[in-house]
Amino acid sequence: MHATISPLSTAKPPHSTPRSRTDFRLCGLRREALGFCSPSQFRNRGVGAVSAKNHSRRRTVFAASASASAADNGSRAPSSFDYDLVIIGAGVGGHGAALHAVEKGLKTAIIEGDVMGGTCVNRGCVPSKALLAVSGRMRELQDEHHLKALGLQVAAAGYDRQAVADHANNLASKIRGNLTNSLKALGVDILTGFGTIVGPQKVKYGKIGTSDNVVTAKDIIIATGSVPFVPKGIEVDGKTVITSDHALKLEFVPDWIAIVGSGYIGLEFSDVYTALGSEVTFIEAMDQLMPGFDPEIGKLAQRVLINPRKIDYHTGVFATKITPAKDGKPVTIELIDAKTKEPKDTLEVDAALIATGRAPFTKGLGLENINVETQRGFVPVDERMRVIGADGNLIPHLYCIGDANGKLMLAHTASAQGISVVEQLTGNDHVLNHLSIPAACFTHPEISMVGLTEPQAREKAKQEGFEVSIAKTSFKANTKALAENEGEGLAKLIYRPDNGEILGVHIFGMHAADLIHEASNAIALGTRVQDIKLAVHAHPTLSEVLDELYKLTKINSHDTKPASEPVAV
Ligand SMILES: Cc1cc2nc3c(=O)[nH]c(=O)nc-3n(C[C@H](O)[C@H](O)[C@H](O)COP(=O)(O)OP(=O)(O)OC[C@H]3O[C@@H](n4cnc5c(N)ncnc54)[C@H](O)[C@@H]3O)c2cc1C
Ligand SMILES: NC(=O)c1ccc[n+]([C@@H]2O[C@H](COP(=O)([O-])OP(=O)(O)OC[C@H]3O[C@@H](n4cnc5c(N)ncnc54)[C@H](O)[C@@H]3O)[C@@H](O)[C@H]2O)c1
C-alpha cells in the first residue's frame, strides 16, 4: 500500500537556517497589535480576504524593501520578504503546515484557488466518512442475525437519501469553517486565487490570467494536492459515470453500479452503496481485488466485505471504454484482458464510479520558471520534501508536501510532511519516517495497516539478509469483540526475530482504524516487541488484540542487542 518509502537520513539540509524564535514572536505580536490580522476583519471580507491594497500596506510595515512586482520577470531572488513562509494550497497539508508555522513564529500566508480545506474536507475524508457512518448503522440495523444474537428486535431500517447527502455536506461545511477559522484566529493570511511560482521565492496569485499580486517569501511550500485520475477512453458525465467528487454528493443511489478500481475509494464506496441497496460490480486491473493490501488481510476482507454482499467482480481486466447512459440506454463498459489486451466483455449498468487513483494537481504552478520537471505530474522531492530540480540539484527554499509529491496520498501524511518542513525551517532537522504512518480503510469492519506488507517485508529481508517472523491473532479470542458479536477479524504483526524490530502491522476487524496507532507509534519511536510486550492493556478492550500479538512474538534467544534508539518521527 505504501508505494514510495523515504529512506531515513540524518544529513543537514544545506539551506536550513536556524532562526531566532524571539524575532518572529515579536513580529507576530506587532502584527496583532497593529490590528491587521484580527479574525473579525477577515470574517467581514469572507474567505481568503486579503486585498492587494491591504496586502501592500502590510508589506510596507514588514518588508519595506520587498520589491517584487508583476513587471519583474521573476528571475532574481528578492533580498527581503513579505512573508517567512507562503504555502500554495489550503488543503489539510497546507493547513497543518500553516498552523505549525505560526506556532513557531513564522509570518505565514496561504494561497487557495478554490474552496478552503481542499480534497479531504470537501471531496474526500470528511464527507466519505459521513456516508460511511450511515452505512455502518444501516448494516447493523439490517443484520437480523447480529441483532438477534444480542437479543434485539428492530423494525425494518430505511433511509432518506437527501438527508444522508445533507449529513455529508453539512459535515464538510462545518469542518471547512473550523479549518478556516483556525487559520484566521492564529493570524495566517489567506490570499485568494490561483498561485503560480514566477521565480525564486516569488509567487503570483489571483484570477488565472489576470492576476498581478506578487508576494515574496523566504520559503515556499507547494501543497496543491490531487484530483481524480480518469483513464483514457472513459467519459465522465458527472451523472451516470462519476468520480468520487460526484459520488460524495449522493445525488442518486443506482440499482446497479460498476466500480472501477478496488482500492480505498472503491472499497469504501462499495460499503456505502451496498448498505443503501445498490448491487456492485468491481472491475479491477490486477489479478485479485484489493491488490494494495497485505494479501492475507485482503483475502479475509474479501470473505467478509465482498462475498456475502451483493457484489460481483471482474479481475485482471481494464475498463477501456465507458460511455454514459443516454436516450434510455444504460452505461456501457468495454473490458479487455489486462495481459493479452484481448476484448473480454461488455457490461451494461446503471452507473459507473471511476476509482482508479488520483492525479497530482500541479498544472499552472509555474514549475518551469524554476527549472522543475514533474514526474507524471508529481513534484520530485527528497526525504525532507525539498524540491529536486531538473538538473538533480535541490531548489533552494522550495518544498512540496501532500498528494502533489505522491509519496503517500493520505491526509495525515500531507499534514505531517508540512509540520516536518516547518521543523526544518525553524532549525530542527527532521525527517518523517513514512514507514510509521498508519493507513485505514473505513469499511465495516475496518482495515488498517502500518509499515510493510508481508511480501514487502520478505523482499527486504532477502535483500538485507535477515529473517522475518509473523504473529497472528483472531478477534475471536478477544472478549470485547465477542461481547459486541464482532469476532470476525485478524491482526498480524510482521517483525524481525533477531532484534524485535516491528516491520508492519495489519488489522482487519472492528475499530481497526483506531487500533493501529499503538503499532504506528511503536514503529515511530523505534520500540521493539520485547519492550512493548510488557506493556499493560485494559481488560476487556479491543486493544488486547495488539497485546496478544506482542505476547505471541518470539525473539531469538541468542539475541543480545539492546532496543534501538528512537528514530525521528
Ligand atoms: C473520496 C476520498 C476519501 C478520502 N479519505 C481519506 C481518509 O479517510 N483518510 C485519509 O488520510 N485520506 C483520505 N483521502 C485522501 C486525502 O483527501 C488526501 O490525501 C489529502 O486531501 C491531500 O491533502 P493535500 O493538502 O496534499 O491536498 P488537497 O487536499 O487536494 O488540497 C490542495 C489544495 O490546493 C489548492 N490548489 C491547487 N493548486 C493551486 C494553486 N496553483 N493555487 C492555489 N491553490 C491551489 C486546491 O484547490 C486544494 O484546495 C481521501 C481522498 C478521497 C478522494
Ligand atoms: N481511507 C483512506 O485513507 C482513503 C480513502 C479514499 C481514498 N484515499 C486515498 O485516495 C487515493 C486514491 O484512491 P483510489 O481508491 O482511487 O486509488 P488506489 O490506488 O487505492 O486504487 C486504485 C485501484 O484501481 C485499479 N485500477 C487502476 N486503473 C484501472 C483500470 N483502468 N481498470 C481497472 N482497475 C484499475 C488499481 O489496480 C487499484 O487497485 C489513494 O491513494 C488513497 O490513499 C484514502
TrEMBL record:
Assembly, per entry: Homodimer. Part of the plastidial pyruvate dehydrogenase complex (PDC) containing multiple copies of three enzymatic components: pyruvate dehydrogenase (E1), dihydrolipoamide acetyltransferase (E2) and lipoamide dehydrogenase (E3).
GO process annotations (BP): 2-oxoglutarate metabolic process; response to arsenic-containing substance
Subcellular location: Plastid, Chloroplast stroma
Cofactor: binding comment: Binds 1 FAD per subunit.
UniProt domain FAD/NAD(P)-binding: residue ranges: 83-418
Cystine crosslinks: 120-125
GO molecular function: dihydrolipoyl dehydrogenase (NADH) activity; flavin adenine dinucleotide binding
Region described as Disordered: spans on this chain: 1-22
Binding positions (NAD(+)): 261-268, 284, 357
Enzyme class: oxidoreductase
Top-rank lineage group of the source organism: Eukaryota
The protein's name: dihydrolipoyl dehydrogenase
Lineage: Eukaryota, Viridiplantae, Streptophyta, Embryophyta, Tracheophyta
Pfam families: Pyr_redox_2 (PF07992), Pyr_redox_dim (PF02852)
Similarity annotation: Belongs to the class-I pyridine nucleotide-disulfide oxidoreductase family.
Active site: 539 (proton acceptor)
Job of this protein: Lipoamide dehydrogenase is a component of the plastidial pyruvate dehydrogenase complex (PDC).
Keyword field: Chloroplast, Disulfide bond, FAD, Flavoprotein, NAD, Nucleotide-binding, Oxidoreductase, Plastid, Redox-active center, Transit peptide
Enzyme Commission number(s) from the entry: 1.8.1.4
Coiled-coil portions: none
Organism of origin: Perilla frutescens var. hirtella
Reactions accelerated catalytically: N(6)-[(R)-dihydrolipoyl]-L-lysyl-[protein] + NAD(+) = N(6)-[(R)-lipoyl]-L-lysyl-[protein] + NADH + H(+)
InterPro entries: Class-I_Pyr_Nuc-Dis_Oxidored, FAD/NAD-bd_sf, FAD/NAD-binding_dom, FAD/NAD-linked_Rdtase_dimer_sf, Pyr_nuc-diS_OxRdtase, Pyr_nucl-diS_OxRdtase_dimer, Pyr_OxRdtase_I_AS
UniProt cofactor(s): FAD
Record has Oxidoreductase as a keyword: yes
